[in-house]
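Milestone 3.1: sequence recovery, worked example.
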């Protein structure tokens, strides 16, 4: 067949190409609180001698863009695929006003205490014309050294004025609520939640695609150059929501054998699957939403993927794939996605 000269072959290639399971390259971030825990995951090639704080395993953010590793689209960024295949990638969510691929999946290695932080909501981002997006997130604790602590909310109901006074008096630590996290627990942090991870915690995170964080307090510590990191006290106080003073683990809901719903929120959803010899196969219907699968134990065969996913591995399953067969006799898998939307009437 002879193509008309006016037809852009590259355009034709992307316009009519069928998506498939997408593996992407992790992006590593370093910070003074990071460690080397990620080096224990199979196939990880960490930068030498660096404190790796985060691994952005799926990201469409300009500060760290995932690149496809496998198949005909190898070398393409997630943002390119998002722009060219929006409907095929997002399915029923394609008509929502996303400017970039809406979800990020990370691993965090808290080798030292993180700063006390607050994330903004959509109203603040729009009002202040921020160059980033609102940020809700959820954690699944993977490992926690006995005695590890994290600050999450406050010991009792507070006002913004109470928190501002504590910051001025350098007594914020005295009103923060601390708890010892346990492996397997899931925590949801809507925008406005005061939080800080302590040392000895390794976790999985799903969040909205944003890197906008306001530091309220950083324990008066200095970096390797003897400088203190920038704080954003006014912005953090403005975004703080005092009503979120007592966050607790989200109770998992078993909806069927081998499956738990960990999170069902307006902007984020997360399920957990347990594979075994008795339940080695699961048919996952991606038509409701693009899925990001991450193996946190064992290994997983994914229909249409060029190789098994090992512990720590992630894959993006576009909505256009419909039903996908998953198979394992040992894996524990997290399934991050947007909340299921019903078909329009």
């Amino acid at each position: 067949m002879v193509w008309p000269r006016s037809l852009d072959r590259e355009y034709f290639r992307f316009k009519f190409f069928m998506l498939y399971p997408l593996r992407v390259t992790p992006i590593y971030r370093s910070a003074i609180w990071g460690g080397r825990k990620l080096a224990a995951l199979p196939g990880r090639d960490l930068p030498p001698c660096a404190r790796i704080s985060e691994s952005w395993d799926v990201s469409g953010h300009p500060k760290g863009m995932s690149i496809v590793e496998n198949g005909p689209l190898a070398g393409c960024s997630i943002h390119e695929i998002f722009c060219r295949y929006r409907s095929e990638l997002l399915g029923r969510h394609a008509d929502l006003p996303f400017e970039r691929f809406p979800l990020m999946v990370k691993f965090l290695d808290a080798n030292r205490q993180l700063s006390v932080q607050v994330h903004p909501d959509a109203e603040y981002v729009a009002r202040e014309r921020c160059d980033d997006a609102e940020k809700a997130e959820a954690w699944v604790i993977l490992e926690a050294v006995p005695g590890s602590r994290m600050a999450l909310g406050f010991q009792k109901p507070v006002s913004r004025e109470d928190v501002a006074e504590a910051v001025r008096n350098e007594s914020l630590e005295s009103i923060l609520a601390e708890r010892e996290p346990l492996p397997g627990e899931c925590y949801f942090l809507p925008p406005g939640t005061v939080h800080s991870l302590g040392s000895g915690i390794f976790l999985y995170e799903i969040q909205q695609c944003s890197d906008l964080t306001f530091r309220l307090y950083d324990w008066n510590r200095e970096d390797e150059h003897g400088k203190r990191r920038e704080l954003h006290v006014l912005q953090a106080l403005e975004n703080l929501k005092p009503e979120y003073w007592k966050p607790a683990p989200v109770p998992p809901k078993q909806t069927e054998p081998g499956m738990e719903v960990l999170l069902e929120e307006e902007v984020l959803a997360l399920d957990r699957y347990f594979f075994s010899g008795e339940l080695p196969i699961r048919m996952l219907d991606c038509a409701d939403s693009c899925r990001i699968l991450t193996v946190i134990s064992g290994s997983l065969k994914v229909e249409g993927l060029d190789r098994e996913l090992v512990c720590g591995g992630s894959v993006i399953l576009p909505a256009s794939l419909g039903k996908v067969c998953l198979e394992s006799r040992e894996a524990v898998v997290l399934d991050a996605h947007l909340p299921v939307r019903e078909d329009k009437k």
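Residues 1-9 have pLDDT under 50 and may be disordered. Helices lie at 9-15, 78-84, 86-90, 122-127, 160-168, 233-239.
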